[in-house]
Specification:
With about 375 residues, this protein is α/β, with parallel strands linked by helices. The protein has two domains: about 5-115, Enolase-like, domain 1 (2-Layer Sandwich); about 120-355, TIM Barrel (Alpha-Beta Barrel). The chain contains twelve helices and 17 strands. About 50% of the residues are buried. The structure holds magnesium ion. Its cofactor is Mg(2+).
Length: about 375
């Protein structure tokens, strides 16, 4: 099975409602889709999300890198040579992790198809169903409370509150939601770099003093402020998770050697694909650090790849893969089955993606 062609498409999907974090407000999800065709007539799919404020990647940079730098290296390569293909992609350009992730997941899709098994089975096969949390956009405390109550009545047991905006108000947001949903719902908070280190310590200590029980706090401070992250981690009891601070295996080693965080969040768009994500997870596991598998605002192709990775590994204990539920329509036929918080895998080989609708080819 050899790579015969690689095509790049643009996909645009409106959201059901605005997605708001401390870093950005999004109304429409835009994705780049990769389709690799082999000499045997098989098709593998990949996807990249342009998230300029986190990865620096935008549509035109993703499609340009894939078409001009990655595609020429891969035509004619054997799908079985995963390690070789990984390094051909990796060495095609520095950075550009979203583009690399998209191409590489299409290769993994084909590799699993070739072996006639669902992808999660060749990556490890630890479990075959998953539960995701649901993210609540940062808004007024009253609005977040309404959305949290809706999520709980829809069956979610873990909520992720987006905070990190108007620091004084974040405690009110959390308190409003906690009081509304009660003590049995797990609530994790994601500040998306929105606090200064001392602000973070003060607000987290206030939450602890009020017994609001945050399960964890994600990325309280700026991505490159490793000392600040460690200061927060050392100053509070609540577990601290690194997200935007950690893209690569080297970042992971650096943070964990410093003991700067208690947990990490791996996303394929940051790591540059499944191969690197496996490496980061292995490092974390060696340090006794559990992993959350998250995503950007992605459609169901790359979220399916992320779910397969999460199902494969014991050390991936938390899931934040609710992004496809934000989309007003689902342009992806096949892939994972999303039933509220529950994610399951149809008994299909590879990623199990049959077809994508509304694609616009980028020539
Ligand atoms: Mg995050």
């Amino acid at each position: 099975m050899k790579i015969k062609d690689l095509k790049v498409y643009y996909l645009k999907v409106p959201l059901k409602k605005e997605f708001k974090t401390s870093l950005r407000t999004v109304k429409i999800a835009e994705e780049i889709i990769v389709e690799i065709e082999t000499d045997t007539g098989d098709i593998g799919y990949g996807e990249a999300a342009p998230t300029a404020v986190i990865t620096g990647d935008i549509n035109s940079s993703i499609s340009g890198i894939i078409q001009k730098y990655i595609r020429p290296k891969l035509i004619g390569e054997s799908i079985g040579n995963i390690e070789k293909i990984h390094f051909l992609i990796e060495e095609s350009a520095v950075n550009n992790n979203s583009a690399k992730a998209a191409v590489e997941m299409a290769v993994y899709d084909l590799f699993a198809q070739k072996l006639d098994v669902p992808l999660y089975k060749i990556l490890g096969g630890y479990r075959n169903s998953l539960n995701s949390d649901l993210s609540i956009s940062v808004n007024s405390p009253a609005q977040m409370k309404v959305e949290a109550l809706q999520a709980v009545s829809d069956g979610y047991q873990v909520l992720k509150l987006k905070v990190g905006k108007d620091y004084q108000k974040d405690l009110d947001r959390f308190r409003a939601v906690r009081n509304a949903v009660g003590k049995n719902i797990k609530i994790r908070l994601d500040a998306n770099q929105g606090w200064q280190p001392k602000e973070a310590v003060s607000i987290i200590r206030a939450m602890e003093a009020e017994n609001l029980k945050p399960e964890l706090i994600e990325q309280p401070v700026k991505a490159d402020d490793y000392q600040g992250l460690k200061f927060v981690r050392d100053s509070v009891l609540t577990p601290i998770m690194a997200d935007e601070s950690l893209f690569s295996a080297r970042d992971c080693l650096h943070l964990l050697k410093m003991q700067a965080c208690d947990l990490i969040n791996i996303k394929l768009m940051k790591a540059g694909g499944i191969y690197n994500a496996l490496k980061i997870n292995a490092i974390a596991e060696a340090y006794g650090i559990e992993v959350m598998l998250g995503s950007m605002l992605e459609a169901k192709v790359s979220v399916t790849a992320a779910a397969h990775l999460a199902a494969a590994k014991k050390n991936i204990t938390r899931l934040d893969l609710d992004a496809p539920l934000y989309l007003a329509e689902d342009p992806v036929e096949g892939g994972i089955i999303l039933n509220g918080r529950q994610i399951s895998f149809p008994d299909e080989k590879g990623l199990g993606i049959r077809k994508l609708n509304n694609l616009i080819e980028i020539k």
